[in-house]
Structures are given as structure tokens and as C-alpha cells.
Specification:
Elements (H helix, E strand, L loop, with lengths): L3 E6 L6 H14 L8 E6 L5 H11 L3 E5 L16 H6 L4 E4 L2 H6 L4 H13 L3 E6 L3 H5 L3 H18 L8 E4 L13 H15 L9 E5 L4 H8 L6 E4 L6 H8 L2
Parallel strand pairs: 1-2, 1-8, 2-3, 3-4, 4-5, 5-6, 6-7, 7-8
Helix pairs in contact: 1-2, 5-7, 7-8
Bound molecules: 2-phosphoglycolic acid.
Length: about 250
């Protein structure tokens, strides 16, 4: 049984008050699920990570922290970048690489996504690598080909760098479902998750690989999605900004 992973990606939203509200909500609601059942990750903007980490520790919260992005570089003259080693110093356990907004709005390439993933591994931060097809590819019946093309560089690097068995997650986030209110159906997501596992299984063992779904996940549709055998959790944008909804998602 793979442990469920519920990750909230705040994107360019939230403030220090929201960080405090999350700690309070998790303390007040006493989620039925515990750390043994589920990893519950919040990815706030990076400037809040240090203070958030202190608060999580002092309140013994169930929450864990993730970063929304990380540098392709390890250190040096790269103004504005944040290195994976800096994240691990702050007890940030997870890092997202290759979110569709980074790939499209910031023209991030497959190779850059791989470099980010490898830097996270090297710093002992668990990578959450995102893949997802645009609507045109799905409508043309080419969704699997597109996803495979994003997975091959990732899986090749995993095999070449001897990373078999290291904890990580793949987030399947069809672009047409992200922020649109139009989630993939459980069947569509299950079918792609099984495909993702089969592609990566050509390179490394995938029994422990968590494949999580993202794209308009809410407490209303999460139960049906997560009932699917290859859906090991969720990456949540919009609904992760509401502490009550996020507690509900952690408890699905
Ligand atoms: P959404 O975003 O839940 O708002 O669709 C998902 C994501 O971008 O990870």
C-alpha cells in the first residue's frame, strides 16, 4: 500500500495570516487521519517557509512543507533563485518540479525539470514532478504520447543516476483541468496514472512510486478520484487556499 500524499500548492497566493490559519485549522479539526496514513504537504510561497517551519514544529502539526519550485543550479550567480540545499536546511521535505505554469509561463524545458528533480534528490528533498497534456493533445487522442514524452527524460535520469527506490511522486495534472473547475473523471485519471506507472516501470521499480492527480480537486470530487487503484493522492491548487477544505481533503 502506498501512503497517500495530499499536497496544496498556494501558487502566488496567501500571506502569513493564512499560514497561521492553517496551523489553527489542523489543530482545531484534529484530522482523523494521522501521519501514518497520509503525508499532508503545504507549498506556500517560499518567503514563508522558514517561519512556517518553526510554527509547524512548535505546534507539532500534522502539516509538512513543500516548495513550489527550486533552482536548476546548485549555487552561484543566479539572482533570485533558491537552491535545493537551502530548502532542506529549512526542513522542507518536498519540492515541486515542472508544474505546468512553470513549463508554460516560464518556458521551463524537460531538461530543466530533470535538473531540478536531481538537485532535490541530492538535497534529500522529495521531488513531486508534474506532467500534463494540453487540451489539443487530448482531443487529438495523443494525450498518452505527450505524457510519455515528458516522462522519458525523467525516467531516464532516474535510472542513470541510480535513483531506483528513492521516494518521489509524479503529479498528473492535465492542463485543461488545472484551475478550470473541470476535473478529469476518475476513469480518465486512473487510465493515465496506470499508463504513467507503466512507462516509468520500463526504467525503475514503481511499486512505491506515488502518482498523484491534480486539476480542480475539491472535497466533493476527491473521494471518487482517490478510490482509484493508481491514484495515490492529489496536488491541489484553488481548494488548498481554504483551511477547512484542505483539512477535509487531508481526511478523504
Ligand atoms: P487547481 O490547481 O486545483 O486549482 O486546479 C492544481 C495545480 O495547479 O496544482
Amino acid at each position: 500500500m502506498r501512503k497517500r500524499l495530499i499536497a496544496g500548492n498556494w501558487k502566488l497566493n496567501g500571506d502569513w495570516s493564512l499560514c497561521q490559519q492553517f496551523i489553527a485549522a489542523f489543530a482545531a479539526e484534529k484530522p482523523a487521519k494521522q501521519q501514518a496514513d497520509v503525508d499532508v504537504i503545504v507549498c506556500p510561497p517560499a518567503v514563508y517557509l522558514a517561519r512556517f517551519a518553526e510554527l509547524i514544529q512548535s505546534e507539532s502539526s500534522l502539516l509538512q512543507l513543500g516548495a513550489q519550485d527550486v533552482s536548476t543550479e546548485k549555487q552561484g550567480a543566479y539572482t533570485g533563485e533558491i537552491a535545493a540545499t537551502m530548502l532542506s536546511e529549512l526542513a522542507v521535505g518536498y519540492g515541486i518540479a515542472g508544474h505546468s505554469e512553470r513549463r508554460h509561463r516560464f518556458a521551463e524545458t524537460d531538461q530543466q525539470v530533470v535538473n531540478k528533480m536531481l538537485n532535490l534528490f541530492a538535497a534529500n528533498v522529495t521531488p513531486i514532478v508534474c506532467v500534463g497534456e494540453p487540451i489539443e493533445q487530448r482531443e487529438a487522442g495523443k494525450a498518452e504520447d505527450f505524457i510519455e514524452s515528458q516522462l522519458i527524460p525523467v525516467a531516464t535520469a532516474l535510472a542513470e543516476q541510480g535513483l531506483n527506490g528513492r521516494p518521489m511522486a509524479i503529479a498528473y495534472e492535465p492542463i485543461w483541468a488545472v484551475g478550470t473547475g473541470k476535473s478529469a473523471t476518475p476513469e480518465q485519471a486512473q487510465s493515465m496514472h496506470a499508463y504513467i506507472r507503466s512507462v516509468i516501470a520500463r526504467f525503475i521499480d514503481t511499486d512505491e512510486l506515488r502518482v498523484i492527480y491534480g486539476g480542480s480537486v475539491t472535497p466533493d470530487n476527491a473521494t471518487a478520484l482517490m478510490a482509484m487503484p493508481d491514484i495515490d493522492g492529489a496536488l491541489i491548487g484553488g481548494a488548498s487556499l481554504d483551511p477547512k477544505q484542505f483539512v477535509a481533503l487531508a481526511n478523504v
